[in-house]
């Protein structure tokens, strides 16, 4: 696929070619005209020389009449002889030639007519030399001398006429020589200047084309690198039409490497083929019609699809957008998400089932609490700044407390133990409770209770639960003699409470009992199932269980078990087991020791935490990917802040130089194109700066400070004072509150909103902006968003501008989204996106309402 053909325009190069060809044609035309003028001047000089020659011939012709020998020759033959006739025809020929040469000059023709009259007169006088018979020689001599004087007079007039002709031609000759010399020197100079100018245009055009070509190569390399490293399938298609101009298919012009990764299709083999031939399933699920609709209506189409690749189901989210003369499809692999949803759904069902069992256990436990005569209480630790337990809070107490203290259980909840039982610090009960928590071991003790002068003895058992303790108290006053029986009952209750408590905390668990002296082991049915066996399918024992432990973790389990047996203290740890089917699972175990029938018994639970550990590993990988994405974003910021702006600065520098040195030579059309190039450079610089501003807004910033929005507004109005005064804008603001936030972000927020209100002002009304503020409760806000505060400041910015259609209320906050053409209103389409990001960074919410032609209102909620 040719990305330059898709993303760039060739108009600039066509215009440069036309200009260069026009210069070549103009240079050739001027050169041709100069040569024609030089030829014309040369012809005129030649013509003048021909006239010179003819006048010279005429001078030679009439000058013969001065020669005595020529006269005598004429007299010998007589006036009517051939010699005189030839002489006269020669003169007439020369005159006719001169008339022809001077036919375009009336002055010369008039002089030639006078010359012809004089020449005829000369012929007549020559002819009369011998036409009279004289009686004597004296008369002949006198006549001859008289005739000669007449001839000489005529010759004198001829010479004067010839001089006039010659003087006029000399003037013409000088003018034509000057004109010829001018054209002779101007022609090569003009050719040289125009040739140099055309060469300069070609050089400048070549430099620009070369720079653009380098920039296009960098952009193309960057885009190809992005497409080759993305995890999404990116394909580009152009439509195929039938004879009725209907779209019957699409031709694949580009496909990235993800097609090979996901579908096993090589991109080089796909290019040139049709979409329906490569992806026939598109015609079955209606997505081909969406692709046609996207191309015909120039709209974005989003769809989800499930396909089968190599007998495996895969899910993709496809986004089809119009681009140039075709459509661009981006498909994101959502298989992992869909599978995670299915796993989550299954886990949710199992969790619901376990919760139901826990509810049954709770109900069962509640019935036990109601049916037994024991007082059961649960206390939560209260610690000081050093982490030491200083008191307890009552979280639970059953109804058996009423006969003893006269209190109702609900009245005692959330009260401090020291307030209800102030004697605990004196009788040692407080130390037992603390030891049960800090040493993580059950504590048993006996405590007396005085009421109405009567002492009642109670035996209590304190067992740690979280950061609290569960105390089971029973009256032993009348049952001391039956101590053994009560002890057994208490031990069974402790075991049951322990199992039920652990079951309430841990889902997917199994329980076990291990009689240390007799080496007898009992495990629950669920424990068998967790190992892949049916209940009681094998005889449990410590040695048998070691066979299930993963070889790499056997030493760990042995060491932990030995430590627990030595100290008789619970020890919680995680290890791996290999089930009957060969699957590896992670088990977390926890146990405690009790004395039963004078024998030490270890009771405990195991939990299958395989999914939790796998989820943690997946989360760790996701965090690594997020770190990589953040690094790539930082890299992009560096590219945008330097690598993208550096060539732009050079372009603007050369634009400035061309404008300074060459702008006066531009034609109107060239000046128009140059202005568009200059404006496009400014717009691209603004776009890059706004993109950087948008990407640099830190959404994780938490070090907020107190910001007085009145000071923010005052600074914004001061910065926009020139624009406000030029547009005669009126700004009316209520007293604004103080909030927790970032000062410069609030400044940018108000600056963008007020600038927008001024930019999109009405052409028939003076701009008026109203800024209002009120404090409201979160429950009174009708808009839906995550509310982190009980109260919010509602701040509205209203104007009387051109407004917009309310259906675009969400679109205007998206990056690069504009409702007007750039030749109508300047801007990059990022300003409101920055506003939204700033408000959300402050845990707030912003939206817009408007009516076309009557103004717009931007409303934001900021935490109070």
TrEMBL record:
GO molecular function, one term: phosphorelay sensor kinase activity
Stretches assigned to the PAC domain: 571-621
Keyword Transferase (UniProt): yes
The organism's place on the tree of life at top rank: Bacteria
Alphabetical list of SMART domains matching this protein: HATPase_c, HisKA, PAS
UniProt-listed Pfam families: HATPase_c, HisKA, PAS_3, PAS_9
Domain PAS: 219-276, 512-568
Keyword tags: Kinase, Membrane, Phosphoprotein, Transferase, Transmembrane, Transmembrane helix
Limits of the Histidine kinase domain: 639-864
EC class: transferase
CDD domains in UniProt: HisKA, PAS
Database matches in InterPro entries: HATPase_C_sf, HATPase_dom, His_kinase_dom, HisK_dim/P_dom, HisK_dim/P_sf, PAS, PAS-assoc_C, PAS-like_dom_sf
Enzyme Commission number(s) from the entry: 2.7.13.3
Catalyses which reaction(s): ATP + protein L-histidine = ADP + protein N-phospho-L-histidine
Transmembrane segments: 12-33, 186-210
Protein name, entry field: histidine kinase
